[in-house]
Amino acid sequence: MMARCWPHPLLSLFLLATWLLLVNDLGIGHWLLGGFLGWAIPQLTQAFWVRTPRVSRPLKLVGFLLMVVGDIAVANLQVARLILSPTRRLHPAFVEVPMELDDELALTILASVITLTPGTVSADLSDDRRTLLVHGLDVGDEAELAASIKSRYEAPLKEIFACSTT
Amino acid sequence: MPLNPWIEALVALFLVAGSLFALIGAIGLYRLPDFFTRLHAPTKATTLGVGGMVIASMIYFSARNGSLSLHELLITLFLFITAPVSAHVLAKAAMQQKLRLHDSTRGKPWQQ
Fold it and tell me: I need a labelling partner for B8 at 20 to 30 A (CA). Which of A43, A69, A114, B34 fits?
């Protein structure tokens, strides 16, 4: 019953928050309207979801997002410094990072986070979804970069989405 | 209604900081040596540039109207959703075209 009415509780909450921010008004009417949209839109799009992602640790997801925002701010300063220093000192590199995640949504989030954190862009995912190709702007040590991506971003995502490790 | 000068100074500070990062992003686009390194400048330095302006706007309108104004946060949200997608598409297209790499690049892009 609960699952049928609210197939994606997090998506519903997200839609409600987006609605309240869009109208920029916290009146009771907008809570009701946002709540209705949060209920109706997941119902109507239910058919398009191939597989419902399971978020097992929602609180951890919030912490992860805050950490990513902090990383973006810090790494922005590093990229700004790299841009303004002589370009011949740059050491760009393509790095292959082996992936353990198998959930589509989790992989999408990981690839987006890698692109958003300055200094790295995720360029491609292999067809078997086992390897992510990452381009780094200034890479000192390829193995270290791959290890830091795995420990800092992949490990928390694996916990949040309760992925089976294959 | 004139604003408190301290709040005005804070708004100005965030506006200038945001503009500075947007400028650095543009400089990066001009200076960096090859396509893949140039890809880093607009997706990155600009996120903090837009962030600075968004914070300035939130402070300004919250102070002027006397109520919290948060809908600027949506700009950040939509930017964070769309920026990685366009960067990924650009990178894939660049690999397909086998664009020239900077001489000191290690590793190879994949064959598409």
Answer: A69
pLDDT band per the 50, 70, 90 thresholds, residue A166: very low
**Cα of A26 to nearest chain B Cα, Å:** 10
Query: Is pLDDT above 70 for A51?
Result: no
In a domain, A70, yes or no: yes
The H or E element containing residue A93 is strand A93-98
Is A141 within a domain? yes
The CA distance from B1 to A129, in Å, is: 58
pLDDT surpassing 60 at residue A165: no
Please indicate, yes or no, if residue B46 is contained in any of the structural domains.
yes
- Same domain, yes or no, for A71 and A35? no
Nearest to A79 among B45, B74, B95 (CB): B45
A140 touches chain B (CB under 8 A): no
